Amino acid sequence: MNAKERIAELVRVLNDAGYKYYVLDAPEMPDYEYDRLLRELEELEAAYPEYALPDSPTKRVGGAAVESFPPVVHEAPLESLQDVFSREELLAFGERVSQTAGESEFDVEPKIDGLSVALRYENGIFVQGATRGNGTVGEDVTENLRTVRSLPLKLENAPEHLVVRGEVYMSKRVFRALNAERERDEKPLFANPRNAAAGSLRQLDPKIAAERRLDIICFNIQAVTGRSFETHSETLEYLKSLRFPTVPHAEFSTVEGCWERIRAIGEDRDQFDFDIDGAVVKVNSLDKRRTLGSTAKAPRWAVAFKYPPEKKETRVTDIVIQVGRTGVLTPKAVLEPVRLAGTTVTNATLHNQDFIAERDIRVGDTVLVQKAGEIIPEILAVDLDKRPEDAVPYEFPKVCPECGAPVARDEGGAAIRCQGAECPAQRLRHIVHFASKAGMDIDGLGTAVAQLLIDSGLIRSPGDIYSLRAPDVRVLPGFGQKSAENLIDAIDKSRSNGLVKLLAALGIPQVGTAAAKTLARRYKTMEALESATTEELTEVEDIGPVTAQNIRSWLDSDQAKHLLGLLRDAGVDMTCAEEEGDRRFDGMTFVLTGALSKYTRDEAGAIIERLGGKAASSVSKKTTYVLAGENAGSKLTKAQALGIPVITEEEFEAMIG
């Protein structure tokens, strides 16, 4: 590949990575790799300027503002920094400074891995905050920044006008708690604290940003009236006096001293509550900064040293399985202890069965590990030359290690999940789902109350809910006589909900409300469903082979039989009453799109189902009608392409009389 082709390839790869990082907040390329490729592109463009492309990432600072927030033109540009990757490059920076501005003092700070913002204050009042964007134009995120508790909203003895640059971040502690919560809710995990902070600050709803508990550290004065300073250190002390959280820093008279501080920051990076991706070296004198000036994209008076991800070899001593609250079996490698990025690592996530198989990771293997995003230990590769002769391929368990129930792979996914109806690891999830509005609709039995009942030993599975008594509940924290009686009344009321609600509540894989209605109408009783074969189930409308097998496997399990026995003994109704009345939509499938004026989608869907029809979420050749309201989107387009009849809300009202 010649220089012209390599430049074109680097521009394409880096622009794609930049879009995912800055616009989508979904980075796929490690920062260190991005910076290394960007350095290669800069060197090639310098050697072959005739091949430079107009969309090269070297010609701009960062990402463009998205349309979700109003644009803000920065009073002073939020410049990026030139990167250095070695002691020699740092010394070369010091030499350039010395040649232009003479002997200089430097300031060294950890480089916080967050989202850069400009904060504007007028007469001491915080009036606007904007993201860095492309360095010249950012996004107005004022309301979300107001939720950052460490950000002062009012300054005492403040200048008339002040603009401060800071870095919004998510602490490691909050990041771990947020990912644990998202894992419990079966949501995608954030890759690292920087990604989590960026996604949180750019939420359209400030309430969500507030829930994420972001923090900020300030490191520069962009503009100020009525004050003058000689050094950068003075500006940080001034910001601190105004009660801004400021970056920790140290001053050095030589670049060699800066290098020792950089090494110390790298060794102690686990001591910071925030994630860092390097250290910044700045000329301390503001007058010398003006002498040095800036290039088109970066100041000549500062550089950022980027730490390479630390990688070390260690040995896999075991592979163990953890069962999460959603039933997913997650493998974990137990490692011989190794010091990595400031902490001792003893295990690493293996994600899933596919991850182990693709890398052929075995017990006894010598592996190369690093911390993903400086947080989560991961295995990068196996050293096959050091593999023991007796090492055998790892076999994923066929049953849950927590409860012994069968496990099954999610349809279309990589997760392998326990199918146990009473699995201890899934206890809270099973009970909350059983009591949810989509399930048995037990008012007052949410996550907090369910956890309280579990912790008190009153319930261990959904089947125990109906054995609760008011005196047992009344003594629990937060309950009184009336609230205990209300909960028991709601539980008693749910006994008569019938087979549809019960099937939706049991948590049978792939059996939600729609499938529950179909099965209840077909079999009428739980006993009839229990005797149905897999082949018979596949003949039921909208029940495919995978769902049929899941239903049969679930019903055949000992835990399911025990749970259903408890529910029968408690008098829970397991029948579907004969449906009477108008069934004019029998066999019809409706898809709703756009905004209706007289109904919500749920209300219109309920009418369709009451009249014997089905409300589906996507358009297919089996769709009978598409009910289109205002601002109908892609579903309307697809219906028109397939020739599916499209009806208006007025036509729908005429159909239902």
Outline:
The protein has 657 residues and is an alpha+beta fold. The chain has a five-stranded mixed beta sheet with strand order 2-11-10-3-9. Strands 14-13-12-15-16 form a five-stranded antiparallel beta sheet, with no helix packed on it.
Q: What is the tally of beta strands? A: 22
Any idea of the CATH class of the largest domain?
A: Alpha Beta
Q: Main β-sheet: number of strands, strand sense, barrel status?
A: 5 strands, mixed
Shape assignment: globular
Number of helices: 24
Tally of structural domains: 5
The helix content, as a percent range, equals 25-40%
Low-confidence stretches: 60-66
Chain-wise SSE layout:
Layout: H1 3-23, H2 31-47, E1 71-73, E2 82-84, H3 87-101, E3 106-112, E4 115-122, E5 125-131, E6 137-139, H4 142-145, E7 161-169, H5 172-184, H6 193-201, H7 206-211, E8 215-224, H8 232-241, E9 250-252, H9 255-267, E10 276-283, H10 286-292, E11 302-306, E12 312-323, E13 329-340, E14 343-349, H11 353-359, E15 366-372, E16 376-382, E17 407-409, E18 416-418, H12 427-435, H13 447-455, H14 470-474, H15 481-494, H16 499-505, H17 513-523, H18 526-530, H19 534-538, H20 545-556, H21 558-569, E19 589-593, H22 601-610, E20 614-616, E21 625-628, H23 634-642, E22 646-647, H24 649-656
Word description of this protein:
By secondary structure, this protein is an alpha+beta fold. It has five domains: 3-59, Helix hairpin bin (Helix Hairpins, Orthogonal Bundle); 71-306, DNA ligase/mRNA capping enzyme (D-amino Acid Aminotransferase, Chain A, domain 1, 2-Layer Sandwich); 312-386, Beta Barrel (OB fold (Dihydrolipoamide Acetyltransferase, E2P)), CATH 2.40.50.140; 417-569, DNA polymerase, domain 1, CATH 1.10.150.20; 589-656, BRCT domain (Rossmann fold, 3-Layer(aba) Sandwich). Helix content is 36%, strand content 20%. The protein contains 24 helices and 22 strands. A five-stranded mixed sheet has the order 2-11-10-3-9. A five-stranded antiparallel sheet has the order 14-13-12-15-16, with no helix packed on it. Strands 5-4-7-8 form a four-stranded antiparallel sheet. A hairpin with a 2-residue loop joins strand 13 and strand 14. Helix 1 (3-23) runs antiparallel to helix 2 and helix 16 crosses helix 17. The radius of gyration is 31 Å and the shape is globular.
